[in-house]
Amino acid sequence: MSDRCMHTQFVVNGETVDAQVPVRMHLVDYLREDLGLTGSHLGCEHGVCGACQVMVDGQLVRGCLTLAVQANGKHVQTIEGLSESGELQALQASFLKHNAFQCGFCSSGMLLTALEITKHHPHATRDEIKELISGNYCRCTGYQAIVDAIESVLKQGASS
Amino acid sequence: MNARNEIPVKTDGVKTQINYIGQSVPRTGAKKLLQGRGTYLDDLRMPRLVHVVFFRSPHAHARIKHLDLTQARKQPGVVAVFDGHDVAQFCTPWVGVLGHLKGIRSAPQYAIAPERACWQGEAVAAIVAQTRRQAEDALDHVQADWDVLPAVTDMDASLEGKTVIHPDLGDNLCFHRELKTEGFDDVFSKADVVVEKIYVFSRHTGVTNEPRAILADYNPAENLLTVYQGTQAPNMMQDIFSRHLNIPESNVRVICKDVGGSFGIKVHVYADEMATAAIAVMLKRPVKFMADRIESFLTDIHAREHKVKIKLACTKQGDMLAFDMVDLTGIGPYSVYPRTSGIEGNQVVNLTGGPYKHQQYKASLDVVFTNKNVTCQYRAVGHPIAVAITEGIVDEAARKISMDPAEFRRRNLIADDAYPYTFPSGIKFEKLSHHQCLDQLMQLMDYKKLREEQQQLRGKGIYRGIGLAAMIEVTNPSPAFYGVGGARISAQDGATVRLDPAGMINVLVSVTEQGQGTEAIFAQIAASAVGVDVANVRVITGDTGVTPYGGGTWASRGAGIGGEAVLQAGKVLRTHILAVAAAILKVEVATLDMSNGVVIDKLTGQEHMSINEVGRVAYFRPDTLPMDFQSELTVTRHYTPREYGFTFTNGIQASYVEVDIETGFVKLLKHWCVEDCGTIINPMLVDEQIRGGIVQGIGGAMFEECIYSEDGQLLNGSMADYLVPMAGEMPDIVLGHVETPTKTSELGAKGAGEAGTAGAPGAVMNAINDAIAPLNASVSVQPFTPERVLSALGKI
Predict the structure, then answer these.
(1) Has residue B365 been placed in a domain?
(2) Model's pTM, two decimal places?
(3) Which residues in chain B have their CB less than 8 angstroms from residue A102's CB?
(4) A117-145, pLDDT tens digit by residue?
(5) Fewer C-beta within 10 Å: chain A N or C terminus?
(6) Is B34 within 8 Å of A80 when comparing Cβ atoms?
(7) How far apart are CA A98 and CA B567, in angstroms?
(8) Secondary structure (3-state) at B433
(9) What is the pLDDT of residues B86-123, one digit of tens each?
(10) Min CA distance, B485 vs chain A (Å)?
(11) Pairs of residues, one from chain A and one from chain B, whose beta carbons lie less than 8 Å apart
């Protein structure tokens, strides 16, 4: 199979990408291989583990189920961009404080889900947090520290 | 008595105002992982890199009639194609046996199978291309004709041996072990009560979030092989690449960057990884292999396929007298190199009945070959089996004599003052704390109140159950684990601790990091031993070209063995720093001490100079020091546990579940664990190790199973079909600790990484069986899926 390409324009972490993109290439592969943004990870490549998550126009998507050409005309944010912008700062500090990660392979995706929780579910209970992070696989922790870390940020948000 | 206040880093010789031992310090050096700035294997970039993919057998057992790679070779981007014969020219085969597992046998295994595939997924050809996509596209153009052979997938059929997988071996038996204490028959035959049960454990696997990966680069000018690999044991791999690729050991460098989870999966020799290294040598350029998820399910080691018949004899008053068990385990077509696939069953024999004071024991183990993927050591190796069968039959006996299961355990757990203690299987315990752990657990879970609640709810048709599981765990292994059997796996680990001129402490350790926080605890130990702020310590692991030689990370040995080496090196460095300061200050070294990176007067506490001033003078102005003085600001120390074969830990877990008797669904309500891992270096890290371990154990007990068809086809090779624990189903886990430092080291730390996984399946099983006992039902086949629960209840 040859790599048929399509002209694609999109913005990644504030920088414009204007390129011929192979139509069969997944977004996360393009980010990792062509742009060198290796913070998004490939765990299962079939949409279960959530390690590949990125934001597309503010929506959380699986980078392994989204084609790169689907990002045409859109804004993509990755763990690198969201770290740089400071949007993840409180969550990252809380994850460190609560030891809500071990190997870190799931953390990029987990943090993006956590960011979505802080934005759209600011009053989530512990059980709701558990449910909301159930699309992100972590083999190392028992998830409890992750719930603690997210809950702590939600409480900070509520009190500020 | 070993006691908390004996922890040496708080006593003479290493006084410091900062003692990080026992503190929940956030992991140093780990922020990068939260910003997507880690370096996992697939993140590496290298010029002239090519990608290898493997053509794998679609059959469980088949002879290659004809393999044609010519069309694949012609595909765009393809650089090279190889079959098993090609690669065998550069990589010799191996046989996974160990001398101390008497009689263990296996057949030679090749990097790429040259003639016959023995499980579905075994590689028979390699395609190398400029990109992974091109290599995968070319796979479609491989032509293979197979002579399909009968597949042996059932363990009993394998033992029977009508079809023999390796004809040269004569039968399918890999390893057999028997054990019987003197007087067993007499005691067993006279016992008041004997209970018996068969427990079945299904295969599952590690499902590391980052799949297995390797990038090998060969430089022909220097005959130098550099292997980047997600591995737990870099020096072991260095030795293996050296011997099987015929490159001098010192010319092989293994580098392990960030690893996305290992759990024992990444401590073995994998044929496709050996092939990748061989192909790098053949092509004289960097070659990368990255397993995808289906390859992970087909080829990452599986574990825990066991069928065990266990009997427990006791008096009607409730004294355990003897355990009798027969274990059959199927390991796939090869014993995995170099640790063998006999160890898991061997551990079941060693550990069954482990927490209790009975004196009689009989065990028989058969390890047989099958045409499924290979099995080998996976987190808690053998423990989940040994604990589940022991604790399962203990509950059966308690029911039979109508004794409360907690009381039955209390009566029979080895007394806390009975140590050192030799168990009937021959293993030795230095010092355990079963009764302290049980007492704390009872308090933590409010056992009595929970029993009352359970009774009340039963009246309302709600079936809740409480399950207990006492456990022992192998940690800090001595050379008795592998070295004595002839495996070139270091039982010793080393640490090099160095003061840099700017006052930073640089620590190099042979133990590796896969996310446990090993580097962080080494920083805590080094900071405490030298007497500096933990922020001024940098730790480097995972590079055979840089770190001391050592064993790596497995069998819960990182903190206990590597940590002790760091402590000893750090203590000596502290005295060497003070010696330089004494030379500068022209005072007796005995008058000085270190506090928070400042050299002080021991008596008055007066600050003399900072550690970076010591560094500056030692490195840049040694001309100002006395002629007969040479500073030594780099110190290396090693540590090997030798007094005991293993430094055992102990603990007890409890599970509280609710069984929906209409649907068979089990809701995990809560889980408790009280554990004794000796000196706790970082409570927060230990707690999440235990919790993660428990969740992994729950996975095996409730969800995870590699399902094979009768002809050896894996039926659930995706994460959509193979269920892993996700947050929504997991209970809150309450932890307690007892600290009994080991006296075999100054640090006193034992391992903590596997206890959770060891005990959780048994606790969950007992809880389910406690819940459905009023319905005269019980489950004994893991995982306990709704289907199996309903079947136990006679509903399907």
Answers:
(1) no
(2) 0.97
(3) 261, 515-517, 688, 692
(4) 999 999 999 999 999 999 999 999 999 99
(5) C
(6) no
(7) 26
(8) coil
(9) 999 999 999 999 999 999 999 999 999 999 999 999 99
(10) 31
(11) 178
Domains of chain A, residue spans = 5-82, 88-159
Residue B15, in any domain of the structure: yes
Does residue A117 come out as left (phi exceeding 0), alpha (psi in the -120 to 50 range) or beta? alpha
Provide the domain limits for residue B741: 380-476+646-792
- Residue A9 C-alpha, separation from nearest chain B C-alpha, in angstroms: 23
Backbone phi and psi for residue B406, each to the nearest 5 degrees, phi listed first: -70, -40
Q: CA B89 from chain center: how many Å?
A: 33
| Integer Cα distance of B795 and B780 in angstroms | 16
B579 neighbors B510 (Cβ within 8 angstroms): no
Token output for B195: 């209970």
The amino acid sitting at B180 is K
B242 lies in the same domain as B255:
yes
Q: What is the ipTM of this complex?
A: 0.98
What CATH number does residue B698 fall under?
3.30.365.10
CB contact under 8 A, B209 and A83: no
Tell me the three state secondary structure of residue B101: coil
- Residues composing chain B: 796
Tokens of A88: 């993840």
Q: What is the per-residue pLDDT across B468-527, written as a single tens digit (0 to 9) for each? A: 999 999 999 999 889 999 999 999 999 999 999 999 999 999 999 999 999 999 999 999
* Interacting residues of B501 by C-beta distance below 8 A, sequence separation 6+: B612, B615, B616, B618, B619, B620
Q: Do A83 and B35 touch (CB under 8 A)?
A: yes
- For the domain spanning A88-159, the CATH number is 1.10.150.120
Residue spans of beta strands (DSSP E) within B293-375: 302-303, 306-314, 320-330, 360-368
Does A131 sit within 8 Å of B728, measured CB to CB?
yes
- Give the residue from B766, B781, B786, B791 showing the smallest Cα distance to B203: B781
B163 token code pair: 């079809």
Q: Which option is the CATH number for A5-82: 2.60.120.600, 3.10.20.30, 3.40.50.12780, 1.10.760.10?
A: 3.10.20.30
